[in-house]
Amino acid sequence: MPHKVSFPQFGDYWIPFEHLVTRGLEAEYVVPPPMTKRTLELGGKYSPDTACAPFKYTLGSLIEALEAGADLLVETGGACRLGYYGELQEQILRDLGYSFEFVNLAGANYSKPLTLLPFLKKINPHYSLPRFAMAGLAAAKMVDGMDAVDDFVRKNIGFEREAGAFEAARADFFRELRAAADRKEVSAALSRCLERMKKIPTDKPERPYRIGVVGEYYTIMDPFSNHNLEWELAKKGMVIERWMNLSGNRLEPAKKVREKIRRYTKYNMGVTCMSTIDCALTCAKKGYDGIIHVKSFGCTPENDAIPVLQNISRDYKIPVLYLSFDLQTGEEGLSTRLEAFYDMVVMRKRAWS
Amino acid sequence: MKIGIPRALLYHYYGPLWEAFFRALDCEVVLSAPTTKATVERGSRRSIDEACLSSKIYMGHAEELLDRCDALFVPRMADEREGIMCSKFEALYDLTENTFRDRRPALVDFEIDRRAKKGERKAFVSLGKKLGKGRLASNLAYFSALRAFEEDRSRRAAALEDSLNADKFKFLVLAHPYVIFDDYVGRPLVELIRAQGAEPVFGCDADFASCLQASYRLTESLPWSFSRALCGAAVLYANRVDGIVLVSAFPCGPDSLVNEILIRRVRNRPILQLTLDAQDGTAGAETRLESFADIIRMRREAGHER
Q1: Inter-chain CB pairs, A–B, below 8 Å
Q2: Domain residue spans in chain A?
Q3: pTM of this structure
Q4: What is the Rg, in whole angstroms, of the alpha carbon atoms belonging to chain A?
Q5: Is A207-353 in CATH node 3.30.70.1140?
């Protein structure tokens, strides 16, 4: 019997994960249910109080995956607290009485793909490496494609003539991705989607409001965690630019980043700090209308980036909205702050022109 | 040359090493005064709300020293032996620089990042150079400082052994040295433990290497070196104490997960978890510590074999 594998919800990236597991490892993939208030309640209830919100979201999602029938859970490693999620989440789930196998990728090094091999064996002892490599290429292409499509949507959805046109194109693309058998089909679906989106009629002013979104890895990429703030703002008629994504193909290499932000930092401040600062500085230099800094409450590296962002904000006179998310973040409070930020951006621009 | 060292964060661990190094190079060392309420308030004003208490305290100390020294010593430390540091210590130099940019602070620094082949000796020698000293003098200063540091560590390890043998009931205190040895937040709790007739056993004073080794019996993938050493202390000493007290600064990233692992895996001793923040100080913690001590005293009197 093949394993029923699952991984915590993380934006829409379950699509390439599913492809990797089903096509690459010939196991079953249990798509965790879309996150809801219940996911948060479960995660919040069984997590330590001061753990960061992504820990709670992913724990809640793992519980829901187990309820949906998963018998093998995968958790990733990372450079911050994320590096210890796996071991603690496994312990919490065992203490709750679930029985399952656990693959903790904290022991692997993603920049050396060979270190992944022993972990794949745990998922399917008889997996075929060539087959996995093929699926890996297709999944990587999916991630690139999803990131490209989302980038396009963020920049244009605020100006569509017919409400829902971009969302529909995006949804069709994701459906096609799920059915795609290999890299070629992924590429074809991507071209179709980009073509279709380019034809969607928009009323984009010559110089639209431009907002850059920077910040912490999980919260910035998971629309459920950040209450879909990008689309909410975009739909007020703004171009939303975000460089951080799973493929990482919009971020510049670390060495170059260090050089660019030398005026503000001498050393690498750790984890995602450098790209947060670099992207914020890019917004400032390119004359964006504002920056939104997104993170979960208590995220140490992103907290430490804030004094630097404050200095950039002073030097370039660019407004920054600092948003810190936890399980108590309410829809209304957030909407009010986004509303106020939007009004301020509009008034500033009127005053300048 | 007057070098200022904030009496905060890793000063509470590496202080003897740093001070001895600067003194061996004929620098005068100026320490900030022990933490008071005013230090916390000053640091809080210079920090974002969400920064951890220990980071706020650091900024309070740093600000106090800005006008009192020629250069403020702020190291960047990315890792230590078998693991990484909390990213606070990677960011500390640039965090301090950006926080006090309006005061144009003169900072001296070094960088320890073993993964990038920047070890401790190299860091100290480059620091010596920045102070205008030669390679040989810097090397000698480093080795004599290392001796002073190791003496301090073995003194502490011996004191820990004495505590473990004390004829009293004992609490293993698991906390970062900059929390528990801080005069404003940690010391009052230590005094309170003593006032309850108990002996505090400081996990962070134990031999680092043996703790790291023992820690693998408790946790496999823990990335932070200092947290790993505290877990090792729990493995080595839990059986020799009556209770365990976890003391954390709010909101400590590593502790938020590590304390939970300790609570779930160290099952043979009662554990009390205390979290200290800038608003409440130790007020709430004191009450909880007193009742924890009461419970353990009663258990002992009722003849519980620990």
Answers
A1: 117
A2: 4-127, 142-204, 207-353
A3: 0.95
A4: 21
A5: no
